[in-house]
Amino acid sequence: MRVGEVVMSVEKDANLSGDRMKTAAFTANRNRRRSLILALAIFWPLIYVASAPAAPPMDKHYYLPDSAASKIVSVAREGKAAAEVTVLTEAVAIKETGPRQTVAKFGEVYAFSPAFIAVRREAPTMLTFWNLQPDDEHDFMLAAPDSSVLMHLKLQPLTKTSFVFTFHEEGIFNFYCAVHQPEMNGQILVLPAAGAK
Ligand SMILES: [Cu+2]
Q1: How many CB atoms lie within 10 A of CB 39?
Q2: CB of 62 closer than 8 Å to CB of 153
Q3: Cα(178) to centroid of ligand 1, in Å?
Q4: How far apart are the CA of 78 and the centre of ligand 1, in A?
Q5: Burial of residue 76, with CB atoms counted within 10 A of its CB: 0-12 exposed, 13-18 middle, 19 or more buried
Q6: Using one digit for the tens of pLDDT, what is the confidence trace for 47-71?
Q7: What is residue 136's DSSP assignment?
Q8: What separation in Å is there between the alpha carbon of 191 and the centre of ligand 1?
Q9: 87 SS3 class
Q10: CA–centroid distance, residue 108 to ligand 1 (Å)
Q11: Using an 8 Å Cβ cutoff, are 170 and 192 in contact?
């Protein structure tokens, strides 16, 4: 074997072991891919459930009236309404636009607008909340005249949220944004049904 041949033979061996390494790497990759696919197959239903579009934001924090509360007010996502009211989340004093002294003294201040709504008993009324803020969550918590909480909605940033409310009891119903207390409140006055004496 001449020097040239030795060099060639060494190179050949080197290539061989390189190929072996490539094969080993490929097998390892394939095994890794297999375990990934297996894991996906096993966990896919879980992943799928977790990423499924959240049905309306109703969980233990946000909910519509339950069957007992529905005797006082029933709330539906849609339906014919005798009246419609748009309720804005108004930024009264916020860090972006000030006034700075007011924000320093009171913190950011928001308000529902309008904060007073009159409806008739049994008259379906559509309330549409416009959360005007791009970076602030608000919510709508409705209380019965006896102060028990009937429902709690999340009002997502830059989103309109509509529900048709039908009140079955007369009286003053307070509502709140739980995030911005004590200032972000309002009242719904439920008057006698039309034609009632
Ligand atoms: Cu709020």
Answers
A1: 11
A2: yes
A3: 7
A4: 24
A5: middle
A6: 444 444 444 445 568 999 999 999 9
A7: -
A8: 27
A9: strand
A10: 10
A11: yes
Query: Domain 69-191 class?
Result: mainly beta
Confidence of residue 109 (pLDDT cuts 50, 70, 90): very high
pLDDT at 43: 55
28-31-37-43 Cα dihedral, nearest 10 degrees: -100
Q: Give the pair of three-digit tokens for residue 105.
A: 């003294």
CA 151 – ligand 1 centroid, Å: 16
Q: Which uninterrupted H or E stretch holds 35? A: helix 3-51
Q: Looking up tokens 């309404």, which residue turns up?
A: 81
Q: How far is the centre of ligand 1, averaged over its atoms, from the C-alpha of 142 (Å)? A: 13
Cα(100) to ligand 1 centroid in Å equals 19
Taken as a whole, the chain contains a residue count of 197
Q: Determine the pLDDT at residue 195.
A: 84
- Preceding amide of 114 cis, omega within 30: yes
Ligand 1 geometric centre to CA of 90 (Å): 9
Domain boundaries, the chain: 3-51, 69-191
Question: Quick check: 37 pLDDT over 80?
Answer: no
Structure tokens at 20: 């072996």
> Could you tell me the pTM of the whole model?
0.69
